[in-house]
Amino acid sequence: MPILQVKDVTKVYEGKVTNRALNQLSFDVEQGEFLAVMGPSGSGKSTLLNLISTIDRPTSGEIIFNDMKPQSLSPNELAYFRRRELGFVFQDFNLLPMLTVEENIILPLTLDQKPVEMMEERLKNLAKRLDLTSYLHKRPNEISGGQAQKVAIARALIHEPTIILADEPTGNLDSNNSREVLELLSKINEEKRATIIMVTHDPIAASFCDRVLFIKDGEFFNEIHRDDRRQTFFQRILNVLSLLGGGQVGDLSSIRLP
Ligand SMILES: Nc1ncnc2c1ncn2[C@@H]1O[C@H](COP(=O)(O)OP(=O)(O)OP(=O)(O)O)[C@@H](O)[C@H]1O
């Protein structure tokens, strides 16, 4: 039974010009999968994340989450559902500058008024696993971008969500920090069987996933599974991207992955 089902989802933005951002898109995500979503600019990736994260509603079609339809929830139930079931990782980290690293990480539990012992226990475990212990008392402006993204990942994990949604999580990082963050996401995915959906423009980032779903003009274009070495998977991702158009695949095809 898939953990997430996107069924015939269409999203039309009405305005002076009607814009069909997604058109009858369907796919499933299994528990424990690490899925990348790729597509040219304007292909509907952010729209899709907004629908999965219940920030917006489809015009038609359904999104089913663990056998449940979030669209049928009341606004209050929906806010709780989002806080409880989803973890978010953004390109620009979205840490609160006035809070310490530690306070940022436990924020989802603070908002849910969880017991202090639970917060301390989970914080201690995560900080150790993600190697954050030495800067827990610093503020976001006192740490590097790579460290900030690790803090954001810890915050996304602390309430043990059903799905982690990551929107270009390496978009603001250099290649070393990107690799560290992607290795961390892979480790969390493998060890905790956490389900991760990651939107990315970066084929190297996508090569860390189990599957890549490609969309074009709001429609399903292709999907490929990683059943071989990462280098081969990376080359296959580049092949699909070159069919999709709009990238600089030629510059990347000679890259050897570390
Ligand atoms: N709120 C909105 N109102 C009207 N049109 C929108 C809105 N949001 C997105 N669109 C349009 O829907 C289409 C898909 O946009 P979306 O942002 O989902 O693409 P994307 O694949 O995430 O692009 P990018 O990679 O550039 O972030 C685009 O044509 C965009 O202009």
Automatic annotation (TrEMBL):
Every ABC transporter domain range: 4-242
Pfam families, per the entry: ABC_tran
Superkingdom of source: Bacteria
Protein family according to the UniProt entry: Belongs to the ABC transporter superfamily.
GO cellular component: membrane protein complex
Coiled coil: none
Organism (species): Lysinibacillus halotolerans
Protein name: ABC transporter ATP-binding protein
Keywords from the UniProt entry: ATP-binding, Nucleotide-binding, Transport
Keyword 4Fe-4S in annotation: no
Keyword Transport: yes
GO molecular function, one term: ATP binding
